[in-house]
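Appendix B, Record 12. Input sequence as logged:
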Amino acid sequence: MLLWALIEKQKPFSSLTRDDLRDYQQFLSEPSPAERWCGPRKPRHHSEWRPFEGALSDHSVAHAISVINALFSYLVEAGYLSGNPLGLMRRKTKYAQNKSTMTERFLEQSLWQEVIHYMETSPKITPRENKEYERLRFLFHLLYLLGPRISEVAHAQMKDICHLRGKWWWRVTGKGQKTACIPINSEMLDALIRYRQFYGLSPLPQPEETQSLFMNLNGSKNVSANMIYRLVKKIFLDCAKTLEKDRPDFALKLKKASTHWLRHTAITHQADVGIDLRYIKRSARHESVETTMLYQHAEDDQWHEAMSRHSLMKK
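Logged structural output:
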């Protein structure tokens, strides 16, 4: 890249722009770089040494750009450069690629309401049925309103619910051992209070309380991630059976759904109601906003609805 900048652009690499870097990527991606850039393998000090032996594979081009991006990022952090000319270009490319892989592993609002309706109308006659309902009700509030991974729920304790600056938060350590605080809204707080009181606990958790956040039926210990998966999967499958006749499409989707779909559903529905992407990214604890953008479906729904007014056979 240093040679290319001096020879082809006649400028030092510190003066390269985003357009220059796009030209360099195109240069690497050509069927074969210009003849003067190719030659047989020789020691670098040899007069016949050339940077390339021939055309680069797509993997080699991607690797080269990745290494250069890391170089620019380091120089920005070191204060040598004011910005990374590759940064925006790579983000746009990544987003364009991701648009075609936008996540579909979520439950649309109408299907989600069917699941909630099924759970709310489940039998609550015996003490065990009532206990199972209360526990599942809290679990679904937790998974939907906070959007956690099931492993995070399995390891969470009541003391992780904390009161900071006059508001309630859930302190969670998740992927990569990174700790974050997720806002607890009034609906989630009400669900927590109801759940705790059902188990005979005080309405709100205390800072030193080591009780598991999600407990077994007896309230004596935590529930494993595998068991949480099975509990949610059973609700999905049982609900699917009730929908097979009238909504086979819903039933089919629920049979495929897993616990992680609830995290996707939570993030998608947050985007649908207009919560700022910055806040969704922080709640979901995504590394980049591009990942969060994969959950934006509202615009696609509006587009689809608009196209329904376009008709060959005019009514």
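Residues 42 and 48 are 7 Å apart (CA to CA).
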